[in-house]
Amino acid sequence: MTNLTHLTIKEALTGLKKKDFTVSELTAAHIKATEAARHLNCYITETFDVARKQSKESDARYAKGDGRLLDGIPIAMKDLFCTEGIQTTAASKILKGFKPPYESTVSGNLFRDGAVMLGKANLDEFAMGSSNTTSAYGNVINPWRRKGDDKPLVPGGSSGGSAAAVAARLAMGATGTDTGGSIRQPAAFCGITGIKPTYGRCSRFGVVAFASSLDQPGAFARNTEDCALLLQSMAGFDPKDSTSVNCPVPDYTQFLGQSVKGLKVGMPREYRIDGTSPEIIKLWESGVQMMRDAGAEIVDVSLPHTKYALQTYYVIAPAECSSNLARYDGVRFGLRVEGENLIDMYEKTRAAGFGKEVKRRILIGTYVLSAGYYDAYYNKARRVRKLIWQDFTEAYKKCDVLLTPTAPTAAFAIGDNMQDPVTMYLNDIFTIPASMAGMPGMSLPVGLSSDGLPLGLQLLGRPFDEGTVFKAAHAIEKAANFTALPQTLLSKVA
Asked: Does residue 334 fall inside a structural domain?
């Protein structure tokens, strides 16, 4: 039998319909792979019993000829999505043991379509980080290694557990959330594909909030087709989310393989930033040539307020996190550390429950929202954010999609870039602008660095035009023909 964990979602669905194997066999193979790779720390909570139960239900549907969109596909669920009756921690001590009494809309949609959940994937605490090293449950390890160097690398963040699980063949796909690059950057670091849809395309109901005007659920998989299938299931209007947009969800797979002849691809000049790896710049130029060879037209565009995006993000996101995380006080759910009085209990609970990075962002957010600084910082950041959005709107008058690097470097070693939080924040310099503007973005692997690590390119599209992003991404995917595997997997391929 083929190594089941190396199949794509599409290949697995085809095999299941042809009865080449069962969902139970497919799930068992992924459980075995996960047990053998626990050192990567991809999952906070393994849900193997749930997966086996869902597998039997999927097998029964296939036996009746009633297979659904994702029936029997083993996935990882980022531990930011509330799952009814199953621990949801947001990778924080303050939520340890919390079992939601309801299901997030996105996870509910995936289960409706037959997905099988292997576990709750690790992440940076409350999605605050770019390396998956702020989790209260330990670092996630990237399955990739540098040539001749066994030093463990970060998988990117915050959705590092999801990305590493897909890259290590512990899941066929995974959910993620993207606030400032938390799907796209881990996808680039782990050599897989990740899609952040337009803000409002996927419901945020049941997703533990970080920054409500930025957070957006999305998907990880090993190619564009699989991402298209996952997003088709996840997306849709939800009356339980006031920011959900009532917009039809197309069959995203129909855009794959369409000609890009005449498509206008924008090259934002401001993305040539000092400190970017020369290999990344060379890869970007290769991606431009791939699109040109496929018949696309390359257009020079400007996003002049890009240089303010990072600073603006680190005013708005902490401000919203300060507000959202005020609910964790030890009174209603999660951790409680008793004190002499109510205020003392609040202080002790939060001191024990929140990690260093979360505390840092709460303090920044509280400061910029304080009476004396609200106009000077928060309101000014909101005005700059509008200018960033206008830049994208103007650029899309000249082009259909934008092509940029995803991250300024390949994955770095655990422990690097961690002394100075600003250095860590710079990892999201290419992804934050699109998040600020609410635009869809996708990262896909295009090549390897001289150290043998994956490098990704990012495609950004107009609001609710994920279809064009998929079309362009598929053209680059076909031209790049990225087939490299993490070094830790090469000896295990059947």
From this structure: no
Question: Which amino acid is present at 194?
Answer: G
Phi-psi region of 13 (alpha: psi -120 to 50; beta: other; left: phi over 0): alpha
Angstrom distance (rounded) from CA 45 to CA 270: 41
The residue from 104, 107, 158, 233 that is catalytic is 158
Q: Report the C-alpha gap between 489 and 258 in whole angstroms.
A: 33
Count of residues making up the chain:
494
What is the sign of the dihedral through the CA atoms of 154, 157, 160 and 166?
Answer: negative
Instruction: Tell me, yes or no, if 261 is annotated catalytic.
Output: no
Neighbours of 177 (CB within 10 A): 27
Distance CA 434, CA 179 (A): 10
Whole-number Å distance between alpha carbons of 143 and 191: 10
Active site residue 259: no
Print the domain residue range for 18: 4-260+443-492
Output the pLDDT for position 494. 45
Residue 246 domain-assigned? yes
The whole-angstrom separation of Cα 443 and Cα 94 is: 32
Point out the catalytic residue in the list 58, 159, 182, 443.
Answer: 182
Tokens of 222: 């090993």
Q: Which two tokens stand for residue 43?
A: 């999952």
Judge whether 188 lies within some domain: yes
User: Cα–Cα distance between 8 and 385 in angstroms, integer?
Assistant: 38
The tens digit of pLDDT for each residue in 389-422 reads: 999 999 999 999 999 999 999 999 998 866 666 6
Q: What is the DSSP string of 455-486?
A: EEEEEEE-TT-HHHHHHHHHHHHHHH------
The pTM assigned to this predicted structure is 0.96
Interatomic CA distance for residues 101 and 93, integer angstroms: 19
* Catalytic residue (choose from 55, 58, 78, 233): 78
Give residue-wise pLDDT tens across range 436-488.
999 999 999 999 999 999 999 999 999 999 999 999 999 999 999 999 999 88
Q: Is 322 a catalytic residue?
A: no
Question: Which tokens go with 354?
Answer: 């929140």
- For residue 88 the two structure tokens come to 């949801």
SS3 content of the chain, % helix, strand, coil (to 5): 45, 15, 45
The domain tally of the chain equals 1
Task: Please report whether residue 394 resides in a domain.
Answer: no
The two tokens of residue 170 are 């512990």
CATH number of the domain within which 451 lies:
3.90.1300.10
Among candidates 91, 190, 82, which has minimal Cα distance to 145? 190
